[in-house]
Design a protein that fits this description.
The structure is a homodimer of 151-residue chains. Chain A has 151 residues and is an alpha+beta fold. Chain A has 5 helices and 6 strands; from the N terminus they run H-H-H-H-E-E-H-E-E-E-E. The structure holds a DNA duplex (30 and 30 nucleotides).
DNA sequence: CAGCATCAGTTCCCTCAGGGAACCCCGGTT
DNA sequence: AACCGGGGTTCCCTGAGGGAACTGATGCTG
């Protein structure tokens, strides 16, 4: 949890930050996505404090982004992405794309993405869901929406 | 700065978090994007502590995401997005899109986006830059890239 | 069946980052 | 000369993150 509660703001960016804005949360999702699904695996891979990992996992489960699932008759669980969580991974892909472009340096990007549909190594691009043309920060106007008045 | 330094990890998500992963940074970028470009405006709109706002702005300028620009003969500046920063706004759009879908509730999204190209209210969609087909979390394989070995 | 290992946390303390308020500096205005 | 307003700085206090030790439930081993 942040000191300041973003969830109350009438802004979908702030609300999203309330779900995955704390330090570590995006990296936890990344790890779950690539197959580190258990507490010990996450802790070892990330080097995160166990206390904080517990807090983050509980929060992500509470928010419906991850699901806790037993995988043994012993009290053992793994964490898996829900549909809501899987769609957050899209955000991670865009984040990775920006980092690949601006921060990777000499040696190039640490991972590559192969698109199932065309079989090629590729990157994500943002398109308008309506017309299919490119849709970036300078290609849009912002208008107040129906939820604008809610505080 | 986080306690843990993400910038050292061989992961573009972690590196991106090193730039805008601290609390407030995405909201600062959002505000600059929509036109709150001055210290006092940002402080008033966000309700952020002045100390932290100073730190965040310096960090974002250091990272080449924002540019500090004088707008008066007095020592007054405004902050504007660089090219690098403008591309980060794409990330904010995806973040907002997710929040609109999963967190907006009854009253609907607080803001709408009108796409210049088609003039319609729309949302961003992720496509493969290579073939143009939909490209989401489950549509790709992850492979090690050239920068994978760097620690 | 005692002892040990493993996973998944929980508890403890310590440090340091965020919040809040007061203060400062600098140029311009009256 | 006194005041103002933008853009910070400085101070203290609280609370979140880090680290390491401890716990509890279950299964495996001798």
């Amino acid at each position: 949890m942040q000191r300041t509660d973003y969830g109350k703001m009438a802004c979908s960016i702030a609300r999203t930050l309330d779900v995955i804005g704390e330090p570590w949360s995006p990296l936890i999702l990344r790890d779950v996505w690539v197959g580190f699904t258990r507490f010990e695996q996450l802790q070892a891979d990330l080097g995160i404090s166990r206390k904080v990992l517990t807090e983050r996992l509980n929060h992500l489960v509470d928010q419906g982004v991850l699901e806790r699932r037993p995988y043994d008759r012993r009290p053992r669980h793994e964490y898996v992405l829900t549909g809501k969580g899987t769609e957050l991974v899209d955000l991670l892909m865009v984040m990775a794309g920006w980092g690949d472009k601006w921060l990777a340096g000499e040696s190039g990007p640490p991972v590559l993405y192969r698109h199932h549909a065309c079989g090629e190594i590729s990157v994500v691009d943002l398109r308008c869901a309506h017309c299919g043309e490119s849709m970036h920060a300078n290609d849009i106007d912002i208008l107040p929406g129906p939820g604008a008045a809610v505080r």
